[in-house]
Design brief:
The protein is of the alpha/beta class. It has 15 helices and 16 strands.
Length: 422
C-alpha cells in the first residue's frame, strides 16, 4: 500500500537530526540518536507504531505506492507557470534612490531615459487593455526607491481601484522600500489600495547598517527606520490582511550583534513583524567576502522567535524563483522595457519586450522562448529529475541558466525548509 517518498532528506544539525520532505515542505526535528531508517526503507516504517506511522503519512514522508511524485510536481509547476488567471507586474518607474548601499545590484547602471509622466501614461493604457483579462492582478512597487514617486504610484493605484470595480477583477499591491520617505498619511493611502505587504531592510547590526544603508548625503538611517517600523506596526495592528516584512541582511556580523539591533524594536510591536533573514550575496556590481551564509539562517530565526518576532514564511512554493518563475510576470522598467529578471541589467536577454507609449506590448519571441525553455528544463535534465531537492529549486536560478546554459546545483540549506517544528 505504501512506499517511501523519493524526496525525504535527513540531515544532522548540532545535537539533532532533521527529517525534511522537499515536496510537502514538512520538517520534523528528531533526537540525535533517532533511528531514521523508516524515512528510507518501507520495511522499517512498517515496524513503527500506528501513531508514528500516521505522522509520517500525514506529512508526506510515506506515500501511497501508486503515486508518481515526479509527475505530480511537474503538473503543479506547469499549472502555476502557465496560469492565465493571475498577472504579477513589478513597477520600476525609476532606478533613482536616496540611499547609497554598496551592494545594490543596480549600482552604476541606467535603464534608458527616465520620464515619469510618460511611464505612468503608457502603463495606464496597458492596464486598461490588459488587467480586465485576469481574475487578479498584483502590482508591486520596486526601484530604486519607489516612494520617491509615491504621488504617481498612488494616482495609478487609485485608477486601478476604479477599473477593477468596472471590469470585475481583483487586485492587491505590495511595496519594497528603504522606508525613509514613508509617512503615516502615505501609508494610510496605500492601505486603501489593498496594500498586502510592505518590506523594509536593516543591515546586520546598527553599526554596520549606518555604514551601508546610509543616505547619499552620508547621514545614518538606523534609528530613523526603527521609528518607521514602529509607526507601521501601530498603524496596521488591526489589519488582518496586511503583512509587514523586516528583511535583515547578514554581512560579516554575529548573532549577538543582530539581536541587539532587533531589541531596538519594542517588545509590544514584535509580534506584528515578520522577519526575513538572508545573507548579502555578490553580484556583477559588488564583490566582497562574507562570513555569513544561509546555513546559519535557522539560528537567527530561532533568536528572532525568542525575542517575540514572527518568522516570514515564503509563499512561492513549487516555483524556481519567488519573482520570475511564471509566464505572467515581468518588471516594467523606467524606459518601458519588460524584463523577467533585473538582478543583472547588463544581460539583455532577460529583456523580452516593451510597452509603447500607447500601451501596446511588443514582444521578442526568441527571448521569451529561451526563458521558458530554461524555466522548465529541470523536468528533462536527468540529474534534476533524480534530485531530492527538485521541488525546492527546479534547477536553480533561471537567469544563471540562461546566461551559462548550466543548472545551478546547490547544497541543502536551512532556507530550503518552509516549516520547521521547534
Amino acid at each position: 500500500m505504501y512506499k517511501v517518498s523519493k524526496y525525504n532528506i535527513i540531515r544532522k544539525f548540532d545535537n539533532q537530526k532533521i527529517a525534511y520532505n522537499s515536496y510537502t515542505k514538512a520538517s520534523l526535528i528528531l533526537d540525535k540518536d533517532s533511528n531514521t531508517d523508516a524515512f528510507e526503507n518501507i520495511k522499517a516504517f512498517e515496524k513503527l507504531d500506528k501513531d508514528t506511522q500516521k505522522i509520517l503519512i500525514d506529512n508526506g514522508f510515506i506515500i501511497d505506492s501508486e503515486r508518481d511524485e515526479f509527475a505530480e510536481i511537474k503538473y503543479i509547476f506547469e499549472k502555476k507557470y502557465y496560469d492565465k488567471t493571475f498577472l504579477n507586474i513589478v513597477l520600476v518607474p525609476s532606478l533613482a534612490c536616496n540611499f547609497a548601499c554598496p551592494y545594490c545590484f543596480e549600482k552604476g547602471l541606467e535603464c534608458g531615459k527616465q520620464n515619469i509622466k510618460e511611464y505612468f501614461s503608457a502603463l495606464k493604457k496597458f492596464a486598461k487593455n490588459n488587467f480586465k483579462k485576469y481574475q487578479c492582478v498584483q502590482i508591486s512597487l520596486f526601484g530604486g526607491e519607489p516612494l520617491l514617486y509615491a504621488k504617481e504610484c498612488l494616482e495609478f493605484l487609485k485608477w486601478v481601484k476604479e477599473d477593477s470595480k468596472n471590469n470585475d477583477y481583483d487586485y492587491f499591491s505590495s511595496i519594497v522600500t528603504n522606508g525613509s520617505l514613508l509617512t503615516k498619511e502615505m501609508l494610510d493611502e496605500f492601505l486603501s489600495y489593498n496594500l498586502k505587504m510592505l518590506q523594509i531592510t536593516i543591515d546586520s547590526d546598527k553599526e554596520t547598517h549606518d555604514l551601508t544603508r546610509k543616505f547619499k548625503t552620508g547621514e545614518p538611517s538606523f534609528e530613523l527606520l526603527i521609528g518607521k517600523i514602529e509607526m507601521i506596526v501601530k498603524q496596521t495592528k488591526n489589519n488582518p490582511n496586511f503583512n509587514f516584512v523586516l528583511r535583515v541582511n547578514l554581512s560579516n556580523t554575529t548573532i549577538n550583534k543582530v539581536k541587539k539591533s532587533l531589541e531596538y524594536i519594542k517588545p509590544k510591536y514584535r509580534s506584528k513583524v515578520n522577519l526575513l533573514i538572508r545573507s548579502v550575496y555578490n553580484t556583477h556590481a559588488y564583490k566582497d567576502d562574507n562570513s555569513n551564509n544561509n546555513t546559519q539562517i535557522d539560528e537567527y530565526f530561532a533568536m528572532g522567535e525568542e525575542l517575540g518576532f514572527k518568522i516570514f514564511q515564503e509563499s512561492f512554493q513549487y516555483q524556481s524563483c519567488e519573482a520570475c518563475a511564471d509566464d505572467n510576470f515581468f518588471y516594467l522598467m523606467p524606459n518601458l522595457t519588460m524584463w523577467k529578471c533585473i538582478n543583472d541589467l547588463t544581460y539583455n536577454d532577460a529583456c523580452f519586450g516593451s510597452i509603447d507609449i500607447d500601451g501596446n506590448v511588443i514582444l521578442d519571441p526568441t527571448k521569451s522562448v529561451k526563458w521558458s525553455k530554461h524555466s522548465l528544463s529541470a523536468f528533462t535534465d536527468e540529474k534534476c529529475k533524480n534530485c531530492k531537492l527538485l521541488p525546492d529549486c527546479y534547477g536553480g536560478c533561471i537567469l544563471k541558466k540562461c546566461k551559462t546554459c548550466k543548472k545551478q546545483c546547490r547544497p541543502f540549506e536551512m532556507v530550503s525548509m518552509f516549516h520547521v517544528f521547534r
